[in-house]
Design a protein that fits this description.
The protein contains 5 helices and 3 strands; from the N terminus they run E-E-H-H-H-H-E-H. With 157 residues, the protein is α+β, with helices and mostly antiparallel strands. The longest helix has 29 residues.
């Protein structure tokens, strides 16, 4: 099961704007680091990642160590893959969003359902049926007497 960090907007506009951030490794963040960061509006992080990757590649070419420059760029991508979701949560906190909590679920749809059930926003639930308890004063008194055979049930005529 995956863990989802539930972030609520600063205006408190309700569950419609709640954001679920999956906690864990992101393959798209690993493969396309600057683009993934820019997609999630992490502009400064995307620019910094792109600049570091370019500098490492140029440094590797300048020192004639192309393999080392590529390996260091791969480490930057690995960092974004591992910590990209944490960067998203931090950016949302800086923008005034607050962390509601963590929900564990198999996929995003299940996480949304669990959050809705936990917060009571699951819709109008019908009230439970009233429990009917029989009145003991209306019950027939047990009949006593002689019983012949196996068909006699005490309390029945």
């Amino acid at each position: 099961m995956a863990s989802y960090v539930v972030m609520e907007p600063p205006s408190g506009s309700g569950a419609a704007d709640t954001t679920f951030v999956r906690d864990g490794f992101t393959w798209l963040g690993f493969l396309f680091s600057p683009v993934w960061l820019a997609w999630h509006r992490l502009w400064m992080e995307a620019l910094l990642t792109f600049a570091v990757m370019v500098i490492l590649s140029l440094l590797g070419e300048r020192l004639r160590l192309e393999g080392a420059g590529s390996a260091l760029s791969l480490l930057v991508s690995l960092y974004v893959g591992l910590e990209g979701q944490g960067l998203r949560v931090s950016a949302l906190r800086r923008r005034g969003w607050r962390e509601w909590g963590v929900v564990e679920a198999g996929n995003l749809g299940d996480a949304e359902i669990r959050h809705a059930l936990e917060t009571g926003e699951g819709g109008d639930e019908p009230e439970p049926m009233p429990r009917i308890v029989p009145d003991t004063s209306l019950a027939r008194p047990a009949q006593t007497g002689m019983a012949l055979g196996l068909t006699h049930t005490p309390g029945r005529p």
